[in-house]
Design a protein that fits this description.
About 40% of the residues lie in helices and about 20% in strands. By secondary structure, the protein is of the alpha+beta class. The longest helix has 23 residues, at about 270-290.
Length: about 425
């Protein structure tokens, strides 16, 4: 026997190669071993649809209803979208989704649950797809997939809300569902690419993705893993700035895209939607910061969260002076989002730009490490969010964690050297200047 996860990966590869019947036989083996694997049932229908069998519609519909009742509303919506794309009516499924997961639903509860997918290690008996398939292989697979959960009755009494959507009025929920665009991507495909403009965001209906950033040398840093129910891509949409990270598919993935059309349909509720999206954005930025900043690397996950709670968060408008040159150092700053400029006055009163600060950059350390006045002025050039840690807390960190002391001392020394080069050599290109 073969582990369920390996069978599904092999089936996905065969499907991508156009071997739809072979892929169907493997997915059918998964459904036989694990009837609650709704993803495999949907993939059986995908294969049958690719083979031109109209019976796929019955599988999408039956699986959609199972997903809706078992706590997987986004997967149910995938089934509805595929049905609609092929001329079938799925309005009953969509209406039930709104009633069950809308903010007025009595099904939404604190004791919510969902029926989980089977574990990937479950043994599956697979057919030898190198041999000819039985003549009724498609018919049998479709029947099994359609009726896999006919006798299942252990549905949760309460379900989890859909991120963002369940906070809307039912009317708005219904409008948004009508505008969501289904995107089905294979493993290794890029859902979004770092540096591109962001005109939409996405819900993950199924599959797994990785979020990663790429530095100037092409090195990748993993920031997060995303699964069913996750939201991503909203940061660039809200900030009107390029994507700050790439998102790639680890497995076959089903996404529901929310574009400008969807947002336009919510004109009467944009305030609440924007607030919810900002909440997602903040959590993701904090996660990215903990994954990439040297400031957090000496700590485990629990300690990182504890350290974050000691920071205060400040939203600053363009033109806001965060640090005035010559003042007493108040503490350590970390850029959570946005951009800031750094400058220093020369002896003749000229202001010289020293560089810029962006997401993840730490500043304010020079005055703390050297117990001196601040050596530069820092001004927000875009709307920004800055985290601040008071100097007494920083002092305890430096005293108690050798890695933090070493990092901040090295950062201060490197910046001072670069600043002196900038101040002494004005022909250094601005994009090579290093911030204070």
């Amino acid at each position: 026997m073969v582990a369920l996860g390996d069978v599904k990966r092999s089936a996905a590869t065969l499907f991508g190669q156009g071997q739809h019947l072979a892929a169907l036989r493997l997915y059918d083996a998964v459904v036989a071993a694990a009837p609650l694997d709704f993803d495999a049932r949907i993939r059986v229908a995908d294969c049958a649809l690719a083979l031109g069998d109209a019976g796929a519609a019955n599988v999408y519909r039956a699986t959609g209803w199972y997903c809706l009742k078992s706590g997987h509303p986004l997967a149910a919506l995938v089934c509805a979208r595929v049905l609609e794309a092929h001329g079938a009516d799925s309005s009953d499924l969509t209406a039930a989704l709104v009633v069950t997961y809308g903010n007025e639903s009595e099904m939404l509860g604190k004791m919510a649950a969902r029926v989980a997918l089977p574990v990937e290690g479950l043994p599956v008996q697979v057919p030898d797809v190198r041999l000819p398939a039985p003549p009724d292989a498609v018919k049998q697979a479709l029947h099994r997939a359609e009726h896999a959960t006919d006798s299942f009755s252990e549905y949760p009494a309460a379900v989890h809300p859909v991120p963002l959507l369940s906070t809307m009025s039912e009317a708005a929920f219904r409008r948004v569902l009508g505008t969501l665009v289904l995107k089905r991507l294979p493993a290794n495909a890029l859902a979004i690419r770092e540096g591109e403009p962001g005109h939409s965001f996405f819900f993950v209906a199924g599959g797994e993705l990785r979020v990663f950033a790429t530095d100037g040398l092409g090195r990748q840093t993993d920031l997060a893993r995303l699964g069913e129910g996750a939201v991503f891509g909203e940061m660039a949409l809200l900030s009107a700035q390029p994507r700050t990270a790439s998102v790639a598919c680890i497995t076959d993935v089903d996404l529901l895209e929310v574009g400008r059309t969807s947002l336009a349909s919510l004109a009467d509720e944009l305030g609440a939607v924007a607030e919810a999206l900002h909440g997602f954005t903040r959590e993701r930025l904090l996660g990215n910061l903990m994954a990439t900043s040297p400031l957090f690397k000496p700590f485990n996950r629990m300690q990182q969260r504890d350290l974050l709670r000691r920071f205060t968060s400040h939203d600053v408008a363009p033109g806001t002076v965060v640090i005035h040159e010559g003042e007493e150092g108040r503490g350590l700053f970390v850029v959570l989002a946005g951009e800031l400029d750094v400058s220093r006055r020369t002896a003749d009163g000229t202001t010289v730009p020293l560089g810029g600060l962006k997401t993840g950059d730490v500043f304010g350390e020079m005055a703390l490490i050297r117990n001196a006045r601040t050596a530069a002025t820092v001004v927000a050039t875009r709307p920004a969010t800055v985290l601040f840690l008071a100097r007494d807390v920083v002092a305890r960190m430096v005293q108690g964690v050798a890695e933090i002391k070493k990092y901040l001392e090295a950062l201060a020394e490197d910046r001072e050297i670069d600043n002196q080069l900038v101040l002494g050599e004005d022909d250094i290109p601005s994009d090579e200047r290093v911030m204070v």
